[in-house]
Structure formats: structure tokens, C-alpha cells
Amino acid sequence: ATVVEVELSDEYQLGVDWSLLTEGSNGFSFTQSLLGNNLVDPPFSVLEFTNLNGTLGDITAAVRALQVFGDVKVLSSPKIMAINNQTALLKVVDNLVYFTLEADTVAGQVQVTTSFTSTVHTVPVGFVMSVTPQISREEQVILNVRPTISRVIGYVNDPNPALAQAEVVSRIPQIQVREMESVLRVSSGQTAVLGGLIQDSIDLSDSGVPYLTRIPGLGRLFTYTNNKSKKSELVIFLRPQVTHNASIDGDLSGYRRYLPQARPAIGSVDSSLREDAGS
Question: In which domain, by residue range, is 82 found?
């Protein structure tokens, strides 16, 4: 799978126009393979990319083609294996740690005492995807996929009145989540494209006249705020490949080069040294 975020340019604010990629001789073709009838505006398409010689191309070419619509950033490019009819879970996340405070106020005869208890929390931020494949005899793959992208967009103060009265600040993260769940049918080796998750964001930046912006009380007169809005679309490429012999000597022989080289046994090293000494 390859997860891509496209920051849409001004002329493509409605999202990626996939029909543009099918024009000309770029090797792209699209078909719909939906499970069910009367589905309007499906959120995914099946993308089949072939090179000029007719062989199956790679996802890299499709990612490069998205640069027509804006700046492209690859968020994650994981590989995952799953047994037929079994769910596989992939997580590429950072566990964000934050604390919440609880105030306990005790009124005594002389004064009021407030104690605080902190509780640690963790929230995963990043990319999570669950995949459940169902493989037919014709090597058609029915995929139940649920990708989730989350990230921190800011922090807010805990509105607990007791904390505000004690002038204690507790910051809580704001998490933005983009998630979809789809069931699609793809042939082994084809690439499914899931898109349509568009978000709006606003970047605030202050600028002004140097030095004059630092004058107390008057600095705001020489400062202006630039609000820049942008849209981005999340695109996910999925290519299922049916593997009959999931071993290094079988369909996964191409991964052998990533394994460390086997070291000779100690006995074989000693025997070779004795042979060299005898010669």
C-alpha cells in the first residue's frame, strides 16, 4: 500500500480528476469493480497501469502522475501479508503522551487546600490500516480495508474550573482523523485506488514592519495576519498479490537480498584452518 497526500492546486480544488490521467498514452485505465448495485459516486476505482510494452507497471508511476494536481507527499508505503479470510493490522504511529489533571479541594478550619492528581494518557497518531482478504479460485481478491490517518492539529486548555482558579494549565491535544471503510474486488496484481478524503486547513502567519511591531501598544498597527487556506486529498493505492508459496525459496525469493548473510559454522572454520596449515 502507498498512502499519498496531494495538496491541491487552485484549479483542482474539487479534488483529483482521474479522467485526465486516462487521456493520451500514459498507460492508465480505470474500471469500476463494485460489490453491490445502484452505488452513486463510489469512493474508489480500480487502476490498471501498464508500460508501453504491455507489462504491469508500478505504483511509483501513478504517484508521479498525481503531481499534475498539486504537491505530492508520500505519508507511508507499507507492505503487509495476510492469510485468506484473516484480518491483518498495520500500525505506523507515534504514541502521543499527555496528562490530565484532577483537582481535589479540601476545606480546613484555617485554609483551603487543593491537591492535583495527574493521569497519563497515550493516543496513537499516524497511519493504521486493517485488511481482510477473501481470495476466489480465479484469484479475485475481495478486500475489506479500513485505513485511518490521524495527526495533531493543535492543543486546547483543559476547561476544568478548578484548574483555572488555581492558575494551572493542562494542555489536551486535538487529533484530526480521516478514515474510510470499503469493500472492493480486485484481481491479483491490479491496483485499487481509494480517494475523495478532502480536508480544508488554514495557515495563520503574522508579518509586519521590522522593529515597529515590537512597540508596546502600537505594534499591532504595523502587523498584519496572512490567512492561507489550502485543500488536500488523501489517496491510497492498494495492490493485492496472491502468494501461493510464502517462503524465501518460493514467491518471496526477491526478499532474500534483505536477509543477513549466513556465517559459516565454527567447526567448518576450524577444519578449513587445519587444511591450510597442513598444506
Answer: 2-260
